[in-house]
Structure formats: structure tokens, C-alpha cells
């Protein structure tokens, strides 16, 4: 049995490579984003596994985290983020760290949570000024000279690079009023007999994707859509009015679920989660202030994000983890997708 390594003996470069593989959903994708050969990244992962004496990935037809790999990813991500913030605080010169940063985020998540985190960063850094665009439309980051874009989806656009901040649950819910009138679905198949409410800027209107604890994916036609809107708040209002069942990111409905205004539906499968990314154009190096703000956001959002605390669902624990290696249907380079929800 290998001796237990002390924290000081762990290779930070290998740890960052491990987290990059988790974020990129694969070794090849991580290597491309890091500008390294695949063999280099593979060796770093193997070195970390030898050092720890555990297997971090299941290397089958599809790469996936082992149970211990998931534990390491969840805990190490926050440690590395806190380290980045600490290094920034120690090394930055307040007199030199400043200027105007141009940010695009959404009218949904941005107004509800991200705006407050960004303004707290500005309060800590009085030499930094910000121009923030809250908009659900697709944004040309490079063409409109944005330093930072906060987007929800699955990154595929090769012109965009950045960091995954957290993974966000999508929740299937209805109001008590709707359940009293129409009943609650018990299985995915039951959805066919219910009324659906759709968010056109993010989720597919053709099918809803579910995911089990084992990573198994099930696609299903949504309920008959009786309401479709390009604004998440409007869909939330329709749920509260008892019009139907929604499939929305957690930040829109968490407080309503906790307060009993909505009911979280348990179909024994969870909705496949989405990811929040901090992105910039590959065509130019990110400014130090954008790097610092990204680290600040990641450290304060948490894994899972703080608004999901005390929110549980037996069927969707896999969606709570930010480190299920899988893909979702939304692409960040799809002009039909929002800058974030």
C-alpha cells in the first residue's frame, strides 16, 4: 500500500490538468484548450493517480470520473479557485490594477445573482470600472469588444476559451395549483399527458433530456407546450399561475421551491444540467482584471452554486455534481442560444 501523500507533495500542475480534463469532458479537448499534446496531459493525470494511489477516471469507451475522482474534483476545484484569489490578492498592486472591464451576462441569472457578485468585486477594487450588458440575445464577444462573457451552455465554439464556473441544475417543477388540477407525473412517459411550459432561448423544444445517477441518458418528447417564451422569468410566472410543468435552470425557481410555491417533480431521473462559463475571445489575451474577476466569481458561486443549498432531489443527485462528464444539448456558439439565461 502506498503511503498517503502529504498535501505539500501534490503536483499543482497535475491537479490543474486533472481539473481541465473534467471541465473539457475529455483529455483531447483539455489538451487543445491548454495548447499541449494529449500525451502530456495523459502523463500528468497518470502521475497524479500514482501519487495519490487511486484511479481517478474510468477509461472505457467513454471517459468518466470514478467515485474518488468525483470527490477530488469537487473539493480540489474550490481549493484551486481560492488559491487563485489569494495569489491575486497578494501579488496585485491596487495602484496598477484597474481600468474599465466590459462584461455581458444575462437578464436572468445576471440580475438575480451575478450582478451582486460583480459589484462586490468592484467595491473591493475601487480602481476598476465596469460596463455590464444584461441581455439574453446572442452576443458577438470579439466583434463587440467584450472582455468577459458569462454564458450558460456547453462550450463548442473554437473561437471562445475560458473557464467553467459551475454546473447548474435544471429542475422539473409545477405549482401546487397545477398538481391539484391535473395531478403529478410519476415517470418520464407520464409527461406526454401533461401541459408543458418552454424556455425558447435555452432548452430544446423538440425533446427534454434526462440523466440518471449512472450517467444514463433518456430523451423524451416534452409535454404539449402550451406556453413558450424567450424569458425565464415569464416561464416562472406561468408555472406559478398553474399553467403547466417547466424545465428551468435552478436559479429561476429555487426560492419558489423552498417556499412551497412550486413542487419539484421526481421522475426517478434528473434533467441533464447546464454549465456556466466565463469566456473571452481566443483572438486576444485576457486582461488581468478579467482573470481576477473570473476567479472571484468561481470562488463565490461554489459547487454546487450557493442558491442550490438545501435543495435536494433523490433522482437528480447526479445533476447536483458539477463533475458528471457528459454533454448537454445547448451549444454556446449557436446563434439561437442566449448569452446566458
Automatic annotation (TrEMBL):
It comes from the Bacteria. InterPro entries: LysR-type_TF_proteobact-type, LysR_HTH_N, LysR_subst-bd, WH-like_DNA-bd_sf, WH_DNA-bd_sf. Pfam families: HTH_1 (PF00126), LysR_substrate (PF03466). Keywords: DNA-binding, Transcription, Transcription regulation. CDD domains: PBP2_CrgA_like (cd08422). SUPFAM superfamilies: Periplasmic binding protein-like II (SSF53850), Winged helix' DNA-binding domain (SSF46785). Residues 10-66 form the HTH lysR-type domain. The keyword DNA-binding applies. Belongs to the LysR transcriptional regulatory family. This is LysR family transcriptional regulator. It comes from Mesorhizobium calcicola.
Amino acid at each position: 500500500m502506498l503511503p498517503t501523500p502529504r498535501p505539500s507533495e501534490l503536483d499543482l500542475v497535475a491537479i490543474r490538468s486533472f481539473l481541465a480534463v473534467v471541465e473539457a469532458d475529455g483529455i483531447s479537448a483539455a489538451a487543445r484548450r491548454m495548447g499541449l499534446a494529449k500525451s502530456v496531459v495523459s502523463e500528468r493525470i497518470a502521475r497524479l493517480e500514482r501519487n495519490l494511489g487511486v484511479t481517478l477516471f474510468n477509461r472505457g469507451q467513454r471517459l468518466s470520473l470514478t467515485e474518488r475522482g468525483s470527490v477530488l474534483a469537487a473539493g480540489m476545484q474550490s481549493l484551486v479557485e481560492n488559491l487563485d484569489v489569494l495569489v491575486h490578492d497578494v501579488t496585485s498592486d491596487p495602484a496598477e490594477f484597474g481600468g474599465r472591464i466590459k462584461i455581458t451576462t444575462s437578464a436572468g441569472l445576471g440580475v438575480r445573482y451575478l450582478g451582486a457578485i460583480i459589484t462586490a468585486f468592484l467595491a473591493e477594487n475601487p480602481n476598476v470600472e465596469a460596463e455590464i450588458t444584461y441581455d439574453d440575445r446572442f452576443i458577438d464577444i470579439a466583434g463587440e469588444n467584450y472582455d468577459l462573457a458569462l454564458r450558460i451552455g456547453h462550450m463548442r465554439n473554437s473561437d471562445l476559451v475560458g473557464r467553467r464556473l459551475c454546473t447548474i441544475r435544471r429542475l422539473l417543477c409545477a405549482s401546487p395549483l397545477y398538481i391539484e388540477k391535473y395531478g403529478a407525473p410519476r415517470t418520464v412517459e407520464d409527461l406526454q399527458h401533461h401541459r408543458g411550459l418552454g424556455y425558447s432561448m435555452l432548452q430544446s423544444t423538440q425533446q427534454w433530456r434526462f440523466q440518471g445517477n449512472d450517467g444514463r441518458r433518456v430523451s423524451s418528447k416534452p409535454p404539449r407546450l402550451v406556453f413558450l417564451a424567450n424569458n425565464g422569468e415569464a416561464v416562472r410566472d406561468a408555472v406559478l399561475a398553474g399553467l403547466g410543468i417547466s424545465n428551468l435552470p435552478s436559479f429561476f425557481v429555487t426560492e419558489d421551491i423552498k417556499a412551497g410555491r412550486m413542487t419539484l417533480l421526481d421522475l426517478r431521473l434528473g434533467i441533464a444540467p447546464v454549465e456556466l462559463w466565463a469566456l473571452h475571445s481566443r483572438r486576444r489575451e485576457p486582461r488581468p482584471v478579467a482573470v481576477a474577476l473570473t476567479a472571484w466569481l468561481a470562488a463565490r458561486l461554489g459547487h454546487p452554486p450557493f442558491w442550490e443549498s438545501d435543495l435536494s432531489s433523490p433522482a437528480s443527485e447526479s445533476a447536483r455534481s458539477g463533475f458528471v462528464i457528459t454533454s448537454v444539448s445547448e451549444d454556446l456558439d449557436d446563434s439561437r442560444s442566449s448569452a446566458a439565461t
